[in-house]
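Annex B.
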Amino acid sequence: MKGTRTVAATVLLLLSAVAGCGIRPTGVIDAGEPVAGLTKGMRIYFASDTGLRGVSRPDVEVRSLSSVIKLLIAGPNASEQKSGLTNLVAFNGSYQVSGNGHRVTVEAPDSHLSADARLSNGQLVCSLARAQAVLHPEVRPDDVQVTLRAGGDSLGPYACSYFLRN
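Lipoprotein: predicted structure tokens.
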């Protein structure tokens, strides 16, 4: 008797599994376009003890690449500072930033550059790459190459991804 009950219960479970869960099949449902690319708007990059971190500046309208350097030099806001972000970008004297398509160049004749200053160089490269893409929507931030020139030295061209990997 016990074996018959076990067999009957097993058959019922198998029939339930074969019958499905009661949801009827539907046709293809259009859900719109897939999510693509990075977030919209301006992002600037600050240094932390774990590397670079991008922060959104949705209310900032980027009109020139030079304005991005001003944003960096202004540093992180109070909330960002509390979360461990800091600015390492500094210029002695004047600077000029120019961009053309996928290329951006920073000229700071009175400043010093070092390939060892990975975080400050990364702040510049990633922030300027993002700004170039905001100014020219046909350009992807990942495709922008940034050259840093100061005091007769030249570094790069760099892509932002170089500074985001460990």
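The chain has five helices and six strands. The beta strands are 42-48, 51-57, 96-100, 103-108, 145-150, 153-158. Further annotation is deferred to the next reporting cycle.
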